[in-house]
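Go through the following before class.
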Amino acid sequence: MPTTVPKELMRYLAAVSLLALIACDSMDDTPDADTIYFNGNILTLSPHSQKVTAIAFKNGKVQAIGTRIGVMRHQGDITEVVDLNGQTMLPGFFAGNSQFSKLLEQTGSIEQSLAAFASQGITTLVDIDIDRKALETLLTQANANKLTLDIIAIPSASELEALAGSDQIKFGQYSNRLKIAGFTLKLDGTTKDLTAWMAYPYQENPDLPAPNWRSSPLMPFSQFHALFQLAVEYERQLFIHAVGDAAIDAIIQASYDLKINAGQDQRHVVVMSRFMRNNQIQQYAKLGLFGCFDTSNIYLDGVDDVDKLGLGRANGQSPIKQALEEGLSASNICSPGPNPFDTTFALWSAVNRVTKEGEIMGSGLRLSALEALTAMSKHAAFQFFEEETKGELVPGKQADAVILSDNPMAIAPGLIRTIEVVATIKQGKTIYRRPSASKTQKGDPPTN
């Protein structure tokens, strides 16, 4: 005959079992950090954090920040403790116009291509203007867990109608470190080849295709308007390449036609925004448009810009300073081309705005080092709706970080270009470490 267990004993056994279960969960959820970094300059880029000299990472996120004494309370038996030796840690950089698939096609190696970006302190990169085949390649690499960096894929607008409403693609969500953000199109070209669409004519010179040359859009306004409308209807971000102010005027006009406003928080991005006028910055604010700039053009093409457009327009290019002063979030990550751009050179260009010939172009538009860093990380995270998880080294956000040889906020502005990336950390794991060879002088930046 089975033995009857008293109710009191059953309650006791149930309570013991519950306590044991809770104890196991507590042991798994240990407060011990995976890694602690100390004895360095830790730039969180958060306005709410005071001076930080130590930081703890756990489970791919920032666990704690503060002084060494405070953060070391998270040290456990298996915590790795790293001495920064006075070096500087800050949030990992974004690369916003990287054309990663073109680099992958050139190298034939996903590991080599990703390593090239990691060596520049980049933890999130954007693969823009890709076709269906390139997108399928990325999906294959992601499904095979080959991605060590986050990749934001932005297919060409030619794929918009086919993909925007697809049930097979989850827009705006990462899966194995790949996210499809929206679509891109080019509205104009560049000043170098006289294809940037300008509201006022280029300066007269023998190379102009016609007198009073202003160039023209790469597609009819009606076609652009229809694509923009389709993106809005599907609630997809549109990334529009526009260098000249006439191209930007067309974007502003289409935005008003489609009744877009800042309160809707759609964050359509104007890639380059290079020769925008002051009054256009105010329109960006009203419409909620986001400017993705590239101040490295000042070094690469500044003198040529003076010849083609005159000193006034050349000096006023890439006015990210004015955009920030108007309260806009604006990034400085849109260096075009398949090669990973030199991130510390990009910082240097934003702070100094110097041409190859050593001339300062638009001295009043130079950024502080803090503004320049923020434009490559915190504002870039906002550009892609990732401000809740990236862009700052604060508890709860991803442990995406870069360690630099020097502090950009303490070094002389002209020397920022000599700073080197020492290590790159993605979700708490070091994915790049600078070879131990002695530091060498940097040469010219890559030309894309």
Summary: Confidence is low (pLDDT under 50) at residues 1-7, 9-29.
